[in-house]
UniProtKB/TrEMBL annotation:
It is found in: Membrane. Keywords: Membrane, Signal, Transmembrane, Transmembrane helix. It comes from the Eukaryota. It comes from Salix suchowensis. This is Nodulin-like domain-containing protein.
Amino acid sequence: MASKTLQWLSLVGIIWLQSVNGTNSNFPAYSSQLKQLLSLSQIQLNNLAFASDAGKLFGFFPGIAALYFPLWLVLLIGSILGLAGYGLQYLFITDQISSLSYAHIFLLTVLAGNSICWINTVCYVVTIQNFPSDRQVAVGLTTSYQGLSAKIYTAFVYSFTFSPVKRAKAYLLLNSLAPLLVSVISALFVREVNVGTGNNMKVGFVAMFVLTIATGIYAVVSSFGSVSSRLPPLGNAIGISVLLLAPLAIPMAEKMKEKFLNGEMKVYIEENVGDHVERIESGINAEDDQTREDDGVCVEEIGAMVMLKRVNFWLYFFVYLSGATLGLVYLNNLGQIAESRGNSGTSSLVSLSSSFGFFGRLMPSLLEFYLSRSRYMKSRPACIAALMAPMAGAFFLLLSAANISLYISTAIIGVCSGAITSISVSTTAELFGTKNFGVNHNVVVANIPVGSFIFGYSAALFHRSEASEDGKCMGMECYRNTFIKWGSLCLLGTFLALVLHARLRKFYSHT
C-alpha cells in the first residue's frame, strides 16, 4: 500500500484509539452509583478519582517501552492493563469475585489510569513520525477525540441499559473491553511509515477538520436534554459510530487518487526527469530547512534536572495546576456536584463537558493549521491566561442556584481546560526544547495527580462538613466554599500566566 494512504490510515486508527482512551473521563457518570454499590464515603470516592490520575506518575514506563519494543506490543500492553484494571472491578461489583478490598480497588484504578499513558505514547510517537511537517496539527486533531470519550461511552451505555445501577456496571465493562478491541484492530495499521515532507497534505487536513467539527457539533447538540429526549438511545449510538467511521473516506480517496495517477505520473516523470525533478528536490530541501528552523525554536534546550531549577518551569507548573488540572478535578466531581444540587441529569452534564472539551482541544490545532504560515509567534502563556479568566468566572457562576448556571459553567470549564491541555504540549516544547520533551512534559503533568489529590480531598472535606448523619449532602452549601476557593485559585493562575508571558515577551515578539 502506498505510503500516503498508510499515513492517513494511521491517523484514522489513532483517532479511534483516542476516542476510547479517555476511560477516566466517564467516571462522574457512574461515581454516585459506584459509591452506593461499594458503600464508599465521599473521601474514599475522591481518592478513587485521584487514583486514576495517579497512574500518570508512572507514565515514563511506556516511554521506555516504546524505545525497545514494537509499537503494536506497547499498544496491546496498555489495553491489557486497562482490561485488568477495569475488568476486575466489573467482576467485583457484579459479584463474580468477592475478595477485593478498597485497597485493591484503589490499586486497580491506578493500573487502569496508567493504561491510558501506554496508548497515548503510541499515538504520539506514530503521529509525530508520520506527519513530520504537520505534527502539531496532527497531534492536536487526534487528541481532541479523547475529549469526546465520555460522550461516546455514554451513548453506548444508554443504548442498551436503563437502570442507573446497571449503567455503572456497563461503564466498567466498556472501559475494560473497548480499548482492547480498538487496539487489536488499530494495531494492524497504526505504525510508523517512511514519509517525506511536503505541503500537499492541506486538502486531507481540511477534510479531516470538517469531519471532526461535524462530529463535535453532533456530540454537543445530542447532549442537550431537549434533543436527547427525542433521539432514540440506539440511534444516538449509531450516529456517533458513523461519524467515527467517516474519516476512513480520506485514506480511501487517497488510495483511489494514487491508483488513478500512478500510470500518468510515471510517464510524466520519465519525460521531465531533468530540470523539473531538480526544481522539485530544491523546493523540498528548502521547505525541510524552513521546517527544521521552525521546529527548533525554543527558549532553551534543557533536561529535566536543569528545568526544575528554572523560574519559568515553576510558573508554568502552577499555571497548569490552577487551570487544566483544576478543571479536571471539577469534572471528576461533577456527579457529586449535580447530585448535591438535586440535578438528575448527570449523564447529560458529562456528555456536555466531554463535547465542549472536544472543541477545546481542537481549537489550538485549528489555529495552528491556519496561522502556521505566519512568522509571528503566538504567546502560549497569553493564550492560557485568556482561557483561565473565563474559567474563574465559571466557578463563581456556580454559586448561583439556577440550573442553567450549572450547564453554562460546565461547558466553559470543559472547553477552556481542554484547550489548555492541548496548548501545553507546544508550550513545554517552546520553553524547554524538544530533545528531552518526553521526560520534561511528564514532569509537568505530574501536577495532575498532585492537584487531583489536594483539590479533590479538600472538596471532600468541605462536603463532609456539610453532610448529614447518613453521609449525604444536599443543597448549595455542599460545594459553596469549594467553588469560591477554586475560582480564586483560577484567578491566581491567570495572574501567573500573565507573569510568565511578560518574562517571555521578547522571545514571542521576534519575527
